[in-house]
Amino acid sequence: MPTSPSDPHRDASGEHAVRSGAGVFDLVVIGAGPAGLAGAVAAGELGLRTALVDAAELTGGQFYRGPSPALGARRPEALHHAWSAYADLRERLRHCPAVSHLPGHHVWSVVRDPGHADRWTVHALTGPDGTDRAPVRLAARGLLIAAGAVERHLPFPGWTLPGVVGAGGAQAMLKSGLVLPGRRIVVAGSGPLLLAAATSLTAAGADVPALVEATGYLGYARHPGALAANPGKAAEAVTHGGALLRHRVPLYARSAVTAAHGRQRVEAVTVARLDRRWRPVPGTARRIACDAVAVGHGLIPQLDLVTTLGCAVRPTADGTHAVATDRSLATSVPTVWAAGETRGIGGAAVALAEGELAGLAAGARLRGAAVPPARTARLRRRIARLRSFADAMAAVHAPGPGWPEWLTDDTEVCRCEEVTADRVREAAADLGARDTRTVKLLTRAGMGWCQGRICATAVACLATRYGASDAGPAPDRRPLAAPVPLAALAELPAESGPKTAEPT
Amino acid sequence: MVGAACAHYAARAGLSVTVLDRGPVAGGTTGAGEGNLLVSDKEPGPELELALHSSRLWRKLAEELPAAIEYETKGGVVVADDATRLAALRSLAAAQSDAGVDAREVSGGQLRELEPHLADGMPGGVHYPEDAQVHPALAAAHLLRASGAEVRCGEEVTAVLTAADGAVRGVATASGARLLAPYVVNAAGTWSGEIARMAGVRLPVLPRRGFVLVTEPLPRVVRHKVYAADYVADVASGSAALQTSAVVEGTAAGPVLIGASRERVGFDRTLSVEVLRRLAERATALFPVLGGVRVIRAYAGFRPYLPDHLPAIGPDPRVPGLVHACGHEGAGIGLAPATGVLTAAALTGSAPPLDPRPFRPDRFPDPCAAPDRRPR
Ligand SMILES: Cc1cc2nc3c(=O)[nH]c(=O)nc-3n(C[C@H](O)[C@H](O)[C@H](O)COP(=O)(O)OP(=O)(O)OC[C@H]3O[C@@H](n4cnc5c(N)ncnc54)[C@H](O)[C@@H]3O)c2cc1C
Ligand SMILES: Cc1cc2nc3c(=O)[nH]c(=O)nc-3n(C[C@H](O)[C@H](O)[C@H](O)COP(=O)(O)OP(=O)(O)OC[C@H]3O[C@@H](n4cnc5c(N)ncnc54)[C@H](O)[C@@H]3O)c2cc1C
Q: Which domain holds residue B167?
């Protein structure tokens, strides 16, 4: 098999030679966040011809969204460590000719090369919002999927009002453009991201009248071992906590925003206490005026590409799925590795370590590179320690089963297709939809623009509550990881010959 | 869909009916296809008669069932892109008219009135006002509920029970249940061959894969079901190789659906970029305006396909009590009501509303000598 970087990749039609650096890459890394960046640099430094592909224009993913120096002055110490690790990687990337960074490439599908069973074809779109019609294809002998995560949303009455934004989304907006979603912003949901979001928002000048967390923060105390093993994490939490105290942000633990009110946009929220199962406690509701709500319930691994590739997934402690890998971060599909949030929510530090380990593993497998065992062992120890903390946190912040009680019948669960909670109930309870997939089929929930990326969790919880078995062992299959213009599909080179005949 | 229709008409005929499915409602091909109720794509013959009868029944069902089934008679437009195809289409339409189809030839100019965004330079086509559609999964779910039949989802049939004389006595399921009944209706779609095998008979149902592309929601740019004249030839082909001709239609919810490829690749769900490419190419050739529109989803389903493209409907003379209602390939939604009526007639021994003989389930000679077995 021709594998040297100088081999030009030929495709059936002869034209449309693969753009963005013709030839077969040893490794295509999808996602240039902490995990992908570390992976590409590790692989490139071992001599692998590597492509680092990301939809975004800059490396850094969700964590290192530019223009970060603007926030530098207020950057707490704990975050600063991660920042210098990132700056170091960026520098190494610049000096690593084996790695081509391909920004602005949105991967919509990865398939086995029909002509070469041991090669992958990575299909990407370019241009603003992926609107350039010329499709890009990359050929690769191996893949590292480091596609990160998306925010988990739980609906509540009023959540579709303008002014209600994702907590991570607000954070990202702030980091990249320094825009605030409002002036008086309630931060709500569950998970450590809320602390980070509230800190950044107050630092940027917003008033945060309430930080509403559905669990008790005390939850961490039940996992003292993990916390002790992660002094960095503890320091981070303390830094955020200190910043919030200074800004006098009132904390509401074991509480949730159970409704948002307003006509044109959000004007106030109802905050209620929750019991252990996350059911609102009667008589505890209070109204808090605000002009924006940043709400989020942690993150969910981004699995579109891996499920379509057929990689095995595993259930996680917080009720979602992540890619399953072996200890070298190889997935169940040969020559496909995974690192970072795609393997389970764990934060930037674990993403950095896993990216590096996966890059090394790919180097050993694809090019027979020699990797010092001590380096691998050190990474494995670090990953194990960080992952145990992350899993503990995930378990603490998993949504309680009672949250649907803050919905009303007419609350929209899927906002793209305007599907209400009542329609989900009808499909599950009256129409014989026994599983989540059928509930979606009968209601169109999750079939709209976002393809369930926003509502999948909520629809699944509700469907199960109303009698559907959540038998679906795997997350949704989304054969298209991104919307693709028809013209881009039409302009792909034709595959020659029928490859579809049955044996007989 | 087919099982729901059989249950509905059998219950209406006074029988007591239990519906078993190993999955949820509409979990098979019904939940993975489109809901076109077409007369336009059928050549005169038994399938067209089944379709015309079904078309009338669907109109009645639409009045009885909730609006949620999304029944709509939007009409079909078949477009010819050159003079040769137009001539072929014209003669097909003439034959269809003789068989009772409302088929109206339209000029290139009239095509533009029907479909303002159609590509330039199409010489003409045929307008079929009777073509309609439903939301297949919702239609199946509501019809099943309306039937009043006992529905047991999650029950997989593992054996067909027979008496000493070879007649059917009922079925056994994976949960250990035994349901006794003098009649068993095999409406297991693409998996019907397995049920037949359990009863000791051969029924060569094969999967024929189809992909559908779903675009982002749009204001109505496509008003009818629009497809190219070569679609009719693809439907009738027995080849295993990939065939694609775009059927483009707007939906009430906004997205445009683009079908439909046909290929025999077993039960392989893997995304085929080549299929997507061809569908996109054909669709943009009909509607250039769709070029900039984005596809948000693609899905695959497996049509239950019999070698002569006709379903198997009616009693199996080899096993008394076994009645088949399967193998509707790419038209099972459209053909379901008439299939249900024929099945009910077979179960009650009443006179069928149309000649069921072309659909005889034992028409396939053993051993396998299906006409299209030639590899190509
Ligand atoms: C909205 C949001 C806000 C966050 N804010 C914070 C915070 O303030 N503080 C904090 O500690 N942690 C935050 N996190 C978590 C933190 O970002 C992660 O811990 C860390 O970035 C994980 O690194 P990663 O490399 O695994 O994934 P990411 O950093 O998410 O990187 C994944 C990259 O993959 C790219 N990608 C995904 N799919 C494709 C595709 N199909 N084609 C091309 N590129 C693709 C994405 O563009 C992205 O750049 C946030 C996460 C999210 C989702
Ligand atoms: C892409 C695509 C587009 C299509 N477009 C159209 C269209 O526009 N118009 C149209 O009319 N048709 C269309 N079709 C065809 C149509 O979907 C099928 O003909 C129809 O759904 C078949 O219905 P069915 O009830 O026979 O099969 P199914 O819907 O597959 O039902 C069979 C059921 O049997 C169950 N089953 C199987 N084995 C067992 C067992 N051992 N025990 C218990 N239960 C079992 C299955 O779980 C399944 O639910 C399309 C198909 C595809 C793939």
A: 2-67+136-204+308-359
8 Å CB contact of B145 and A492: no
pLDDT, tens digit (0-9, with 9 covering 90-100), for B34-86: 899 999 988 899 999 999 999 999 999 999 999 999 999 999 999 988 888 88
Residue after which a domain boundary falls, among B305, B323, B342: B305
Q: What is the ipTM of this complex?
A: 0.85
* One domain, residues A16 and A85: yes
Contact check, Cβ <8 Å, B295/A501:
no
**Are A59 and A164 part of one and the same domain?**
no
Query: How far from A29 is each of A115, A195, A489, B79, CA to CA, in Å?
Result: 22, 31, 23, 45
Q: Which element (helix H / strand E) includes A380?
A: helix A373-397
Residue A316 belongs to a domain: yes
- Tell me whether A153 touches chain B (CB under 8 Å): no
For residues B273 and B147, membership in a common domain is answered with: no
Q: Kindly identify the ligand whose nearest atom is closest to the C-alpha of A356.
A: 1
The boundaries of the domain holding residue A63 are: 8-150+300-371
CA distances from B71 to A71, A156, A423, A483, B132 (A): 56, 32, 19, 28, 7
Altogether, the residues listed in chain B come to a count of 376
- Residue with the nearest Cα to atom 19 of ligand 2? B332
Same domain flag for A322 and A281: no
B332 Cβ contact list (under 8 Å, min separation 6): B1, B2, B29, B30, B33, B189, B303, B304, B311
Whether residue A344 sits in one domain with residue A287: no
**Residue A22 shares a structural domain with residue A85:** yes
| Other C-beta atoms lying within 10 Å of the C-beta of residue A313 | 19
Q: What is the pLDDT of residues A125-141, one digit of tens each?
A: 987 666 666 778 999 99
In this structure, are A175 and A262 located in the same domain?
Answer: yes
Q: Which of B224, B60, B248 shows the shortest CA–CA distance to B132?
A: B224
Residue A215 lies in a domain: yes
Name B126's bridge partners: B78, B105
Which amino acid type is present at position A9?
A: H
What is the per-residue pLDDT across A167-212, written as a single tens digit (0 to 9) for each? 988 887 777 666 788 999 999 999 888 888 888 888 888 899 999 9
Per residue in B130-187, pLDDT tens?
999 999 999 999 999 999 999 998 899 999 999 999 999 999 999 999 999 999 999 9
Residues with CB under 6 A from ligand 1: A 30-36, 53-56, 61-63, 106-107, 146-151, 168-169, 171-172, 193, 196, 299, 302, 340-341, 347-348, 351, 481-482
Taking the CB of residue B307, how many other CB atoms lie within 10 A of it? 18
Q: Tell me what percent of chain A is helix, strand and coil, each rounded to the nearest 5.
A: 35, 20, 45
Shared-domain flag, residues A345 and A436 = no
* Residues of chain B neighbouring A431 (CB-CB closer than 8 A): 25, 141-142, 145
Question: Considering only alpha carbons, which residue of chain B is nearest residue A494?
Answer: B274
A75 in the same domain as A14: yes
Query: Higher confidence at residue A150 or residue B253?
Result: A150
Q: What predicted TM-score, i.e. pTM, was given to this entire model?
A: 0.85
CA distance A312 to A320: 14
Spell out which residues line ligand 2, taking CB within 6 angstroms: B 1-3, 20-23, 27-30, 32-36, 156-157, 187-191, 195, 210, 212, 259-260, 301-304, 326, 328-334
Confidence of residue A474 (pLDDT cuts 50, 70, 90): low
**Helix-strand-coil split of chain B, %, nearest 5:** 35, 25, 40
Instruction: Tally the domains of chain B.
Output: 2
- Note whether B157 and B191 are same-domain residues: yes
